[in-house]
What does this fold into?
Amino acid sequence: MPTPTHTFHDIAARFGKVDLNDPEAVRHWFTEVLPTLPPGTIEEIFEAVLKADETTDDKPVPRSYPQGVPLPSLSGSPAAPTPLLAAGLRELLNRLRGQRKKG
It folds into this structure.
């Protein structure tokens, strides 16, 4: 299971004094600041992520999306392929319907 988003928010707040309610600040801290930290600190942060993965909690997952990026819509999504069983049953029904019309 992937690491919950709130884990990264909590760790950025703990190690980087980042506002955990600001997803852009959290992203910036992980992508720009974290790589510049001393190896020992990075190791400590890595251990904190692993430890958080081992615990389960019922904390709600914050929903956030990148700014300036349009949200995908269902109408813009590609159509799902018809499952083979359903396609086969549809073909069978069409053939049976065709035979019934002839008879």
Observations:
- The mean pLDDT is 81.
- Residues 5-54 form one domain.
- Residues 84-102 form the longest helix (19 residues).
- The two ends are 56 Å apart (CA to CA).
